[in-house]
Amino acid sequence: MLDIVKRSENGIGVIELSGELDTTSSVNFQKEIEGFLDNLTDLTIDMKNLEYITSAGLRVLLLIDQTMEDQGSFKVINVNEDVMDVFEVSGFSEVLDIQ
Amino acid sequence: MKKKSLVKKYFYRLLLLGIALLFGITIISSLQIYDKFQLTFRHEGETYIDMIESQINKDTLISIINKKDELSKIKIDSVDAGSISDNIKHEYEEWVKIDNFIYNTFFFYDDFTRFQILIPDGDHFISVWHASRYAEGDRNPMSLVTLNRLEHSLITALSNTNDDRLNYLPDNLLVFRKNGKTIGTIIEPILDDNNNVIAIEELDLDISQITYSILQIAILIAFFIIFTLAFSLNVFFYYTKREIMRPILQLNNAAKNVVDKLKRNEDTQKLNIHTNDEIESLSHSFESMEENLRKYIIENNAITVEREHIKAELNLATGIQADMLIKDFPPFPDRTEFDIYASMNTAKEVGGDFYDFFLINDNQLAIVIADVSGKGFPAALFMMRTMLMIESLATNSDSPAVILDNLNKLICKNNDSKMFVTVWLGILDINTGILRASNAGHEFPIIREPGKSFELYKDKHSFVIGGKKKTKFKDYELILQPGTKLFLYTDGVPEAKNAQGERFNIEPTIDALNKNPDSSVKEAIDNVTKSVSDFVLDAEQFDDLTMLCFEYKGNNIN
Q1: pTM for the full model?
Q2: Is the interface score ipTM higher than 0.90?
Q3: Cβ contact (<8 Å) for B461 and A91?
Q4: Which distant-in-sequence residues (6+ apart) come within 8 Å of A85 by Cβ?
Q5: How many structural domains does chain B have?
Q6: Quick one: which of A42, B75, B150, B502 has the most CB atoms within 10 Å?
Q7: How far apart, in whole angstroms, are the C-alpha atoms of residue B371 and residue B11?
Q8: Domain A2-95, what architecture?
């Protein structure tokens, strides 16, 4: 349901998400990013192909946001309309750096 | 004891069988069941050789002739084979070769109908006797191979010759007898005083007799082979039955119902296989498998008991959670100013959604709907914590934003698991109909003003509870006219998925409410529930489904 492509170089990391970030896939997503965030000073999550996100997915984003707050910068890009709705309703749009 | 392989076992058995067969055939061959050939040598009326041979071959003939040589002391000049005309040589080469052993005698068969005797005479041959001539008589040339006839015919032949030198009767005579019966002769060259060949001795064998005896031997051997094979196969099958079939049947019987027997804790069939081969190994493997299976079943039983235990606890937990939510409607039967109905269907045994409403005082009604991130037990535990906190915090302030702020700070303090909860909290002044509300990342409420239809109300939003310590919460106010309805829900409603993976969405939710905008609060929720279940059909419920509908009826109705 969720494809995660991640790469990092010189402390700059990019994660590309495609599919749906829901209860099941967010467990996997959380496992995938464990350790990956270490030593990152800049993280970008590309949501171009992310179709949907649920509260469980938001929780992982919150985790990432708080981890990156101490390490450097974190931004989310290419957010589609459905995901943006969820961000707005949940107030995540106020908290995350969405570009 | 070292294990033998079945292949080896059977290889040795087959080898043994082969050896037995060979041995048997050798014995039969050496039994001298061949026809016996009797050789008799008479010279000038006296018998010198009377020997019995089981086989006639070149060597036998040579040895016989050597013996005859000694006896007769006849010196014989060799005849120049080159003097045989090319034609004859070509036609009878084989025979010439063989018959050279019988000195310088030439007799030729080309088939059973022709037979002739040639006597070398200087540089040419005299045909002494010819089968075709013989055939002119009453007798069948096929039978001319018996001694008496030949003797007779030879005499006839010789006596028919005008050459005086041929007026001799053969008296060096080798006689072949088969089982006592004469079947052929060898006739020596007959010489005059100057050692000139004047007549020949003749060898004659009835081929058909020999063939017949070979057939007899062949039949005997065949019978022996069949008998040996039949016997061996019997032994073979006996061993196969004893060493393969029986153990396999035993294993089969043991394997049957083994699981059922183990489950009932009954004794299983004991294996008694001592074939010392792969089958015995198999039986040992089977026994150890059975032992493992027994352990596994015991373990599995324990797990099942454990699971039942957990299930019972889970049911209890579901009950406890359900008990926290108000389920008796109307909840405040003596309050006619408002009407409330709510429902929650969890995706798992316990859920992370909750609704709540309680009177802070006589004039203030708090309404809460909330959704914890995730589902199941973690969400349920977090939900209970949040719910109790809100009830307790609500007594200290009439501003939902302040209450949420306090709640957020409390939760952020101890939230390593980064769980969060979206909360919509409203406090209604029952007398004035003024609703102060604050939305912490929760779904937009749906509001229906009197005489209008249900519409989504995009209220002011702040971040979820438990996300950030420094989140700012804001209040907003709505003045409810009597007859105003407020529909609150969690994301399980618009996000309900059908089997095709499509979502129900917010518009159909509003449509379902607008089917009958004047319906009671219970009917409103029933309408949405029905629309959602019609959409989802038999797909698995994905998220908790929680709804609350509130109607303000005004303060002066009674």
Answers
A1: 0.58
A2: no
A3: yes
A4: none
A5: 3
A6: B150
A7: 77
A8: 2-Layer Sandwich (3.30)
